[in-house]
Structure formats: C-alpha cells, structure tokens
Amino acid sequence: MRRAQGLGIGTALSILLAAILVMAQQDPQVIFAVVTKMPKDRQRVTAQVSTGGAATEATLIATETILENLIWKKLEVCHSLKAEAWKTAEGYRLVSVKVLDAGMLPMTLQGIAGDCLLKKALEFAPLVD
After folding, report:
1. What is the pLDDT of residues 53-82, one digit of tens each?
2. How many domains does the chain have?
3. Is 46:36 a contact under the CB 8 Å cutoff?
4. Do the domain assignments include residue 32?
5. What range does the domain containing 102 cover?
C-alpha cells in the first residue's frame, strides 16, 4: 500500500515538474546578439548575447525551422540579430530570428558590433587607399 502511495506522489511530482517546464518554455525571451564565430555546420553559432544587461558569449542553437530560414543560411560573422529564444544549459535555443542594423542593438552590443565590422573590413582590404 505504501509503495503505491509513493508511486502516486512520484508520478504527481513528475507531472507537476513537466507542467512547470512547459509553462516556462511558452514565453521565449527576446535576445540581441552579434555573431562572433561561424562554425561549419551552422547549427551552433557563437555570439555575444545581451538580454537587457551585460553582453556575454553564448551559443545560439538553431532549430530545424531556423536552419531552413534564408536569414540563417546567409548568416556571417558580425551580423546583428534580434531573436526569441529559450535559455538552456547549452545556450539559447532559437524560436525566431531577425537581422538588425548594428545601430539598433542595445548599447552593450553596439561597440562589439562596431569592432567586429572594423576588424572584418581590415581583413578584407587591409592596404586599400
């Protein structure tokens, strides 16, 4: 009898935990990012990310719908993004993504985007007058 009660409480707790996780994932948070490194597979992209505070390096994890998006297919280093994502242990799992002008980023990311663009320009044409 006690074993049956223990299983009932365990089952109830697991259902409650699953419901809490589902509710937490219903509202993805808005993030801003500047792509800093491009891997070969494009499923995991390293970026400087801001969620309203200081910028931190994080991984952007693309879902199947994001991988098929033309924006993601044309993604390059220094691109500025506004996205909706869920925070996970591995990084940010993207729900939607939009490309922004670097001037539309939060102030914490504008300097990073500017430095990235200058570095990219110097690599492209270092000695052009």
Report:
1. 899 999 999 999 999 988 899 999 999 999
2. 1
3. yes
4. yes
5. 27-124
